[in-house]
Please model this.
Amino acid sequence: MIHGLSFGMLKPDCLIRQLEAEAFRRITLSGLQILLQKRLRLTQEDIDVLYSNLRGREFYEDMSYFLKSSDSLVFVVKGEVEDVVKLLNRTTGFTDPKNARTGTLRELGLDVRRNVAHSSADIEEVVKSVRHFFSSEELDNCITKCAL
Model:
């Protein structure tokens, strides 16, 4: 069910600066389709799921505080390419906006900590994140409607 999908998130700085329409425009221009989206205020549990690989790092507490400071928008995309995860990662861009390529989401970021977006690094992260933020019913309904 997760094959051909990827997971991403627009962070609080993206929403505060009202860049979500531009971010989604860039995602769709890359050939991906937004299937599901949900605006929410992240909890510490949400952050621990998304960033389990970063727990214990010196910046984790500050990053968590920032991510809980305002709403984020989590989303699922699908694409007709072989590796949707890789395409969304390429579209998201390098972590540091100073190194982000033109046309990527992170080109819109202000600095390495406020870089507007997150995308899952691999299919295991996609599965974990999609299952955490969306019910199987939400995913099934969306895939059924999108297939019509």
About this structure: The longest strand covers residues 32-40. The mean pLDDT is 92. DSSP finds seven helices and four strands in the chain. The two ends are 16 Å apart (CA to CA).
